[in-house]
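Query form — protein DNA-binding transcriptional LysR family regulator

QUESTION: What is the three-dimensional structure of this chain?
INPUT:
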Amino acid sequence: MEYLLAVVEEGSFTRAAQRLSVSQPALSHQIRALERTVGHPLLERLPDAVRLTPMGRAYLPHAVAALHSVEEARHVGRPRSDLERIGLRIAALYSVALGIIPPAVLAWRRLYPDANVELLEYGNSGDLANLMALGGADVAVSAAPLHWDGPVRVLGSEDLVVVLAADDPVAAGGRQKISLTELAGRPWVLYAPDNGLAAVVAQACSSAGFIARPAVRTHHTSTAVHLAAAGLGPALVPRNMIETDFGGVLLDPDPPVRRKLVAFTTTAEVPHISAFIDILAENGAVRSRRRGAAGPAGAAEAAPQ
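ANSWER: The structure tokens for DNA-binding transcriptional LysR family regulator are given below.
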């Protein structure tokens, strides 16, 4: 299972083998053996990437939970201070992990400087909920999952913005807003179905009266930003994750497109977990308000929430 997780995290058999200090044939053999045990392929081997099959996505949370259980078992009985016992396992959507999570982790580590932090990234809230149910993380940060019986805290709303190439004619004149209907006839940079933003974008376009046709689909939100900035088509992207020097231009959809973000856990309040959620709730909205967008005429202010 450690081999599978390494390949998924690295996105490459070569890099995973280097990380694990094993040969690539040995790694491939271990993965094939695991797939034989499960009875289904877990990885789809593409010319320039490796990604999980549907069975792989269902299996991965169990693998992560099992690895955590093994790690905890190794430490049973070892004398440790209270501080050394503190660790934080965060599960987050890809787009959230690139946006509000980094500054929150930095602030949290000022409170617990010697604690361990592990970040697990997933495409949609359903996978996060499955992982949490199996005990694979301490807290999940995502759009609200459809089915969750444990504690949930609303963090606020996340604005999505339209990303375009810097020389796109509709961005001329320094405008800051755009109706999605103006982009209805264009091919779009869209998300693969396993990315939770795919449904958000489809709903936004449907509300604007059209179905977006794809120029390209991607699994990763950061890739969508660069594809749109390169001129392949407009993309809807969470404002929180876009750097000010990304090379394209941002426009606010009119009406706004937002999604609600939550933090959810499996247990009652645990001080160091609650501290992290408090930081997210306090800093996430501030980060969204303060981030701007780089365009051909300079930075555009983010709309207040």
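ADDITIONAL NOTE: The chain has a mean pLDDT of 82.
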